[in-house]
Amino acid sequence: MNFTDSPCTVLIVDDDPFGIIQLQTVLKDSGCELLTASDGPSALEMVDRQPPDIILLDVVMPKMDGYETCRLLKENEDSQRIPVIFLSGLHSTEEKINAFEAGGVDYITKPFSEKEVLIRLRTHLTLHRVNKRLIHELGSRDEELQNTESKVQDVNAALKVLLSAIEEEKKELANRVQFNAEKLILPKIRAITEEEDAEKKEVLFRVIESTFQELTRPFVPGAGGVELGKTLSPSELQIVNLIKQGKGSKEISDICNISVSTIASHRKTIRKKLKITNRKVNLYTYLSSVS
């Protein structure tokens, strides 16, 4: 009776040649490859060379009995999962308990029925294969989980780097705002307190208002356009704010206490930094469009 759909190997261990022949006869049509050993040490060597799928093991043998042979098989990581079925003429309950305690999966008493041997052998082969498949699947899933965990750790590491970069950018932005405020706004506030002319005070107020808008632009949701605060220096930003108010070079010169030629130089630099290559483009018009 062929009861296997895939190749299998059965190791028969018995010191009685007749017992080996009897089992070979029973299993000749099973579809399994049959290996034999006449004692425990020979069986252990055979398992090391060619691990079988299942072992039929006699209990009473010279040199080493079946119980000790089975215990040694179970202590070896390479052979501990191979199912062992004991065959013995000993019928006592104590012997059966010894067999299971040694690591056996079943105990067949002699004389045995051919059908009983085949059914029990087929059952334990099936269980062994299912167990191997489950172990393989669990190993694959464990590997997948480890890979997933590794990816999560990589993502977390990337997020930490990103958050660190954001914090650094926030610090840089805060420092830039503070620097620009000290350079652009505070001097104008001091000038207002010292200025007696009402018209000039109004101009200074407008300069402060425009400068404040530029400083707070990065924090305003939806504020688009050119980020002048990142592109221009504080002095250039001050001049841009005055130009956007419609002030000419002479007026800007008076307000900033610098020469008209210096204002002209600043205008040229501002055009270059803002990449205004067309000379026909009016600077006031352009700046108004990006505000």
From TrEMBL:
Coiled coil: 152-183
Listed Pfam families: GerE, Response_reg
One example of a Gene Ontology biological process annotation: regulation of DNA-templated transcription
Annotated Response regulatory domain residues: 9-125
Modified residues (4-aspartylphosphate): D58
This protein's record includes keyword Coiled coil: yes
Protein name: Regulatory protein, luxR family
InterPro entries (alphabetical): Bact_response_regulator (IPR050595), CheY-like_superfamily (IPR011006), Sig_transdc_resp-reg_C-effctor (IPR016032), Sig_transdc_resp-reg_receiver (IPR001789), Tscrpt_reg_LuxR_C (IPR000792), WH-like_DNA-bd_sf (IPR036388)
Keyword DNA-binding: yes
